[in-house]
């Protein structure tokens, strides 16, 4: 996978499903990350080719739930992000999906208590030996690219030292979120500390943090010297941030997202979650739109809300 001058969709829990990834790519994202999936979870799945939809599904045994869905169209740009705290388990999980994705990424930045209590995410930032073990195990046994995503440590020097250790493991690229674990989203991203990492490494570094307009891609790239730029909230709020021609209207983006959810049979839970996140940025869930989306029970309900009932009927009738 090439990283030079790439614009990348960041991994986002409950958001980075197939429809949203395809939406971002349609608007110009060169690389798209799926939502983080824990190794334990993917190991409970079996791979199934879904001829009905034209997808490859990883379905949880027993429940029948689709844990991860992808399609051939995104094969060469898709990064599967995994949460793990064990090298052997990480490899077993990665082997299940590696032939269907372009790269495997290990999440080393998630600050949520669930991840940290399980020794995953940001908990790995203080365990360089384990980090090295996981990454080298994956690199030695997989044909696909291996990357990881970290947050800043307590000092720039500490971040650089860990980043050098990660580089030594043989990863293809390193994504750096310019905030520390204790920082909140409202705190400014520390682009200068990402620049310190870029200066210390020879592998591609992906800069992440405070990209909310297309112009910011170039701004953070110049400020940090990073090879590529990753965007999370800016894409969630309006996925057309990736358009060089400028953003489309919020209403158009929501409807196109919903159409993709209908087409790819996305679950109503994750569809609602993403729509609610979009609404909360521009409006309020307590107003009319937010209330009806929150109360909706099916994709058909959502189609009716956004005037896409005709499209819903057409797609479901012709499957």
From TrEMBL:
Pfam families: Dus
DUS-like FMN-binding domain span: 8-281
Gene Ontology MF annotations: flavin adenine dinucleotide binding; tRNA dihydrouridine synthase activity
GO cellular component: cytoplasm
Claim: DNA-binding is one of the keywords in the record: no
Keyword Secreted in annotation: no
Alphabetical UniProt keywords: Flavoprotein, FMN, Oxidoreductase, tRNA processing
Cofactor names: FMN
InterPro entries in UniProt: Aldolase_TIM (IPR013785), DUS-like_FMN-bd (IPR035587), tRNA-DUS-like (IPR052582), tRNA_hU_synthase_CS (IPR018517)
Full protein name: DUS-like FMN-binding domain-containing protein
Organism: Dendrobium nobile
Biological classification of the source: Eukaryota, Viridiplantae, Streptophyta, Embryophyta, Tracheophyta
């Amino acid at each position: 996978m090439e990283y030079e001058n790439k614009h990348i969709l960041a991994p986002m829990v409950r958001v980075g499903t197939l429809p949203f990834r395809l939406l971002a790519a349609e608007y110009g994202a060169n690389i798209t990350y799926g939502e983080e999936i824990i190794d334990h979870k993917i190991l409970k799945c079996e791979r199934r080719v879904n001829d009905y939809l034209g997808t490859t599904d990883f379905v949880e045994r027993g429940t029948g739930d689709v844990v991860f869905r992808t399609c051939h169209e995104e094969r060469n740009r898709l990064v599967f992000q995994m949460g793990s705290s064990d090298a052997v388990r990480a490899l077993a999980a990665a082997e299940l999906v590696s032939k269907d994705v372009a790269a495997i990424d290990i999440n080393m930045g998630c600050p949520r208590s669930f991840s940290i209590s399980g020794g995953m995410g940001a908990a790995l930032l203080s365990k360089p030996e384990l980090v090295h073990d996981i990454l080298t195990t994956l690199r030695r046994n997989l044909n696909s690219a291996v990357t990881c995503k970290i947050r800043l440590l307590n000092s720039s020097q500490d971040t650089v030292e860990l980043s050098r250790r990660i580089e030594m493991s043989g990863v293809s690229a390193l994504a750096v979120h310019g905030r520390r674990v204790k920082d909140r989203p409202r705190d400014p991203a520390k682009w200068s500390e990402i620049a310190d990492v870029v200066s210390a490494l020879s592998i591609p570094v992906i800069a992440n943090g405070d990209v909310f307009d297309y112009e910011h891609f170039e701004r953070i790239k110049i400020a940090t010297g990073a090879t590529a730029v990753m965007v999370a909230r800016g894409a969630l709020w309006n996925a057309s941030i990736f358009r060089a021609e400028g953003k489309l209207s919020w209403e158009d983006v929501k409807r196109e997202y919903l159409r993709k959810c209908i087409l790819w049979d996305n679950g109503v839970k994750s569809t609602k979650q993403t729509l609610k996140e979009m609404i909360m940025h521009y409006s309020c869930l307590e107003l009319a739109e937010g209330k009806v989306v929150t109360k909706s029970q099916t994709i058909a309900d959502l189609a009716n809300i956004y005037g896409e009932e005709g499209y819903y009927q057409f797609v479901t009738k012709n499957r």
